[in-house]
Amino acid sequence: MPERPDYAALIAGHTVVVERINSGDTGLPVLTQLLRVAQPALGATGMAFVEFTPHGGRVIAATGAAEWALGRPLPPSDPATACLMHGPRVQRVRIDRFTGNLAEELTRRGLCWLIAARAEIGGRPVGSLHALHPTVDGEATAVVGYLASCIAHMYGDQTGLPVHGDGPVVAALADGLAVVDGEGYVRLWNPAAAEVTGRSTGQALDHPLPFPLPPPGQVLDHRLPDGRWLRVASGELPGPGSLRVVTFRDITDQQRRDQERDLFVAVTSHELRTPVTVIKGYANTLTDHWDSLTDADRRKAARVIGQRANELARLLDRLLSSATDLGTGADTPPTAIDLVEALRSAVTDLPAELRQRIVLDLPASLPPALGDRADLATVLTELTTNADKYSPPDSPITISVDADEQTVAFRVSDRGVGIRPEHVERAFERFWQGESGDRRRYPGAGLGLYLVRRLVERRNGWVSLRPGTQGGTVAEVRLPRG
Length: 482
What we know:
Beta-Lactamase; 13 helices; 6-stranded antiparallel sheet; Helix Hairpins; 5-stranded antiparallel sheet; alpha+beta
């Protein structure tokens, strides 16, 4: 690591990042560009940013020696998570201070020091920026703290960040209480009101209520500019004057559940309609015109019915799994599996048309992985089906593997339309589609990648997407070594 950061390169690169923001770029692409600028300027071997949610953290951007961890979750119980969430906002830590798999992996890669700085908004952490080094000295700590503050400012703008909708930028659920006068000005504002709205008592008192006031005895659901939802109720306050008491609480999670329920019904009806219509049409044709059809026509009809029935079965499995905890498999302990042999076996079960496109780049042997063979087959089916859908029919879909000291990984690479950098995390959300409406070019329920992530993470692995270096998309699954 250099004694002093390359400030000239850092300022020049940061200027480019700011220009991208001013031109309208947002979210993960800008965040990743900032890390790419910072890494050489700091002399770091790798940079990473972890976004925090109520359920822990996840690596959403990484460069250099940290890129292997992209997509990795950090559970709240992980000692590294606790260290990053608490203590000084900027700290320089020896990796061996941590315990657990993550620390072992970093140490084995020759990374002994970590400079970590939390990105905070109003004292609430939204993420943590990390610079990884074999050794640490010089002035890098202050620079990392500054860059974390810049990232916090990006979160505060609410433009493409947070990546995950349940992030800490969403305020805590608590009932707020206010008293307003006859002209709608706030005369009382309790601490919970400040917590729910983000407006301090000083900002709220003697100012108009920052949301519509429903008539006495009625309830109003109101969406705030930052996307959160409030349920507001009001009543007249007994006594002299025309004071009204207003109560309100954050119902963002409830609104999200209601929207997911409505979306589940809409997606189910839309995606079931096509295969059912085709099956019904061909079945009616066979029933009504059997004698007039040639043997070739009958075989074609039977083949299409079978294909559509398989699609229907897979769709039903996805829908049912997405509404449950993926059955009882989560209670089954993982076993050591031969990843090369398991992948070869899983490929033979793929549809013939898809199987013909598969190119296997597998070594003769590989260290065993901890996982579940049935889950692995499902994951591979979903990833290859996804690659098939978004790439030309005559292009190859490559399956490759590798291993390091702690993990065994396989990748599914296509040469299709590719994934936009700002969509690499959203693609794992339930029901999310890159396109919307009835004119979507690519069919699907938006459940495949959602289920892949759940299956992989319940076995203590992780999955990530990234644009391919020569176009297309690379999906990577990492599992612990057996």
